[in-house]
């Protein structure tokens, strides 16, 4: 029964998250929903990074970089590629199965896509011409694929490195990516940011209720669903032979190689899968926010993901995910300033200090995080006691049999 406690707690926690949007009716509804959507986003990043670092022992600082690849792939795709039901005769276009795909020129920071001469002139010349963006879902899929492909290529290049070398390489990769995005102003608009269509640009109807593109409920369940999908994939991988092999890499890579494990292959695979998850989260979050900038790739953001995973429990991706959700909510709650002895404490600054202190305490006294040990206690904490009790019972039965035989 004790072993079922984490499962029961997980079901209850998920039930609360599912029911919350329907029972919470306060005036700050949109703000609270935004905080939770962002928390799910960080939970995906923290849990996938936990699989990479906690299970496979591959410490990477490039996770936010791959998230950025997913976000910018879907942004560029939806920003520069348009579809029309007829040829414009003015734009760079190609016909595929009766649909015309239009590629517009780079726009810089001073104009929007629809002010491009070719589209403007085409729409003015033919008012019946229908021009629309590419499907958002296709952009998200492409972002996920590009993130996974980038992870695969970089994994082939650097995953023969170990320890600090891998961390330094991925840190350099993330910084180079951020600098490149910032410098290519004509294409990415630099710090001005790229605008994206909303997740549900035309609205969506759920259970008879129509939600417009600004509603929080559809993206809430979209991000929650993506989180559950990622956790399901990670659970399946962890319980398979794949999970056994990547844990062997963490414990002793040389010993695993001596036993026949293709260490490079499994390191590249786990790196690719976790990078694809980060890219998927970045693509969905980009469409939810509606604009992306290179600020997404700051090292502080990567440090936040690592801290969430460590405080939750880096060797348990469920603990890392739950820890990310709780910590993101706590960081927002700590924005409220308060007075002590007539002095006002600005928590918008000090909240990060408390977060850092919590991280230091966790690293010093709870090396496997705050949540993972509790899960471990209920799932495996009584195994040793049960084993000893069974052995003692067997020994007692054996002695009783010997006494009876005399």
From TrEMBL:
<feature type="transmembrane region" description="Helical">
    <location>
        <begin position="296"/>
        <end position="329"/>
    </location>
</feature>
<dbReference type="Pfam" id="PF02653">
    <property type="entry name" value="BPD_transp_2"/>
</dbReference>
<dbReference type="InterPro" id="IPR001851">
    <property type="entry name" value="ABC_transp_permease"/>
</dbReference>
<feature type="transmembrane region" description="Helical">
    <location>
        <begin position="220"/>
        <end position="238"/>
    </location>
</feature>
<keyword id="KW-0812">Transmembrane</keyword>
<keyword id="KW-0472">Membrane</keyword>
<feature type="transmembrane region" description="Helical">
    <location>
        <begin position="136"/>
        <end position="159"/>
    </location>
</feature>
<feature type="transmembrane region" description="Helical">
    <location>
        <begin position="64"/>
        <end position="82"/>
    </location>
</feature>
<keyword id="KW-1003">Cell membrane</keyword>
<feature type="transmembrane region" description="Helical">
    <location>
        <begin position="268"/>
        <end position="289"/>
    </location>
</feature>
<feature type="transmembrane region" description="Helical">
    <location>
        <begin position="35"/>
        <end position="57"/>
    </location>
</feature>
<feature type="transmembrane region" description="Helical">
    <location>
        <begin position="349"/>
        <end position="366"/>
    </location>
</feature>
<dbReference type="InterPro" id="IPR043428">
    <property type="entry name" value="LivM-like"/>
</dbReference>
<keyword id="KW-1133">Transmembrane helix</keyword>
<protein>
    <submittedName>
        <fullName>Branched-chain amino acid ABC transporter permease</fullName>
    </submittedName>
</protein>
């Amino acid at each position: 029964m004790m072993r079922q406690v984490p499962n029961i707690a997980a079901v209850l926690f998920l039930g609360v998250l599912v029911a919350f949007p329907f029972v919470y009716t306060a005036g700050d509804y949109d703000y609270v929903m935004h905080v939770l959507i962002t928390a799910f986003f960080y939970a995906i990043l923290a849990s996938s990074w936990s699989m990479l670092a906690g299970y496979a022992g591959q410490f990477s600082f490039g996770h936010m970089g791959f998230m950025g690849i997913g976000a910018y792939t879907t942004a560029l795709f939806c920003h520069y590629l348009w579809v029309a039901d007829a040829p414009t005769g003015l734009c760079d276009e190609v016909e595929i199965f009766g649909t015309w795909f239009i590629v517009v020129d780079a726009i810089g920071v001073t104009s929007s896509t629809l002010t491009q001469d070719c589209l403007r002139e085409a729409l003015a010349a033919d008012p019946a011409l229908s021009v629309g963006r590419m499907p958002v879902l296709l952009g998200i899929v492409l972002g996920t694929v590009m993130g996974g492909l980038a992870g695969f290529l970089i994994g082939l290049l650097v995953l023969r490195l170990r320890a600090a070398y891998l961390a330094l390489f991925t840190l350099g990769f993330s910084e180079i990516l951020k600098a490149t995005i910032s410098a290519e102003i004509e294409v990415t608009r630099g710090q001005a940011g790229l605008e994206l269509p909303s997740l549900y640009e035309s609205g969506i109807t759920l259970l008879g209720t129509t939600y417009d593109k600004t509603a929080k409920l559809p993206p809430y369940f979209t991000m929650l669903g993506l989180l559950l999908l990622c956790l399901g994939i990670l659970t399946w991988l962890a319980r398979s032979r794949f999970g056994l092999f990547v844990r062997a890499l963490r414990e002793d890579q040389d010993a695993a190689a001596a036993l026949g494990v293709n260490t490079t292959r499994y390191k590249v695979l786990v790196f690719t899968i976790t990078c694809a998850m980060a890219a998927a989260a970045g693509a969905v979050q980009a469409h939810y926010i509606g604009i992306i900038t290179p600020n997404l790739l700051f090292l502080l953001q990567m440090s936040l993901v690592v801290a969430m995973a460590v405080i939750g429990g880096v060797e348990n991706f469920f603990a890392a995910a739950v820890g990310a959700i709780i910590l993101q909510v706590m960081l927002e709650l700590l924005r409220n300033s308060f007075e002590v002895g007539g002095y006002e404490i600005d928590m918008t600054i000090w909240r990060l200090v408390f977060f850092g202190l919590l991280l230091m305490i966790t690293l010093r006294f709870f090396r496997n995080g705050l949540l993972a040990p509790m899960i471990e206690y209920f799932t495996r904490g009584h195994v040793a006691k049960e084993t000893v009790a069974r052995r003692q019972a067997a020994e007692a039965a054996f002695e009783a049999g010997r006494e009876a035989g005399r």
